[in-house]
Write a structure and sequence with these properties.
CATH architecture of the largest domain: Sandwich
Oligomer: single chain
Distance between the termini: 31 Å
CATH topology of the largest domain: Jelly Rolls
Structural class: mainly beta
CATH class of the largest domain: Mainly Beta
Length: 265
Amino acid sequence: MTNPDSNTVSVIDTAANAVVATIPVGLLPRGIAITPDGTRAYVMDLGDNTASVLDTATNAVVATIPVGKAPFGVAITPASHVVTFASGTGTRVYKFNHIFLGLAENVCLNASFPANCPAGATLYGHQGSGWLADLSSIPKATWIYAPGITGESSPAQLVQYFFQTTFVIPATPTAGTLFVAADDAAQVMVNGSVVGRIGSLADVSKASDAQNRIHKFDITRFLVKGKNRIRIGQENGPARFGGCAVPDNYTCNPSGVVFGGSATW
């Protein structure tokens, strides 16, 4: 409990109903709140415009935080539960949105692109750079494509696959975010609803943006309690995007998708 007149906090043993420690804090302490794990207590120091952070194991102030004028009350948001998902070799791949082909394979343009190409990935043998999207927001995600496709596979232009992952949210969802990049276009679907699209099959600049920049979608309103399905419909651009002869192959006209995200409840 806070003691405004003495600028202290009293620690009470609830079993013995006795004060076991008195901790000096800031001027005129008022509100107090304890973190869900019980390791920290935050005390509002009304007269100092600060918050004192107490270590409940040592009964000592471990930090003093400047806050707004005359802080009085304090509350701590309960800890959220989080589920994450990321593209990888466990992602299911479909043709025509319903024919299951198997599990995805990791793919890279070559040994240098994208950065941190995973061991064992299929290398298309593409001459040049690309797939520069920053994946720091989804560090476990890898660029993937349909099983059995190599650089020599043909044709490559305008080929479409669907990539699916599922997860369970055991309570009412409170937030959800999805990040995606694709070569050359993708449609994001959550539980059968279209959330958004990236890239283009007609505009090479939009296609380039789709693969070289991560795109963020708020999927909160599409999530449900129970099983959730993320499905990315990805399509490769025309051969002319890469200056490729027809019929083209994946060495000249590579294709792939990377995605991931999280949901809380």
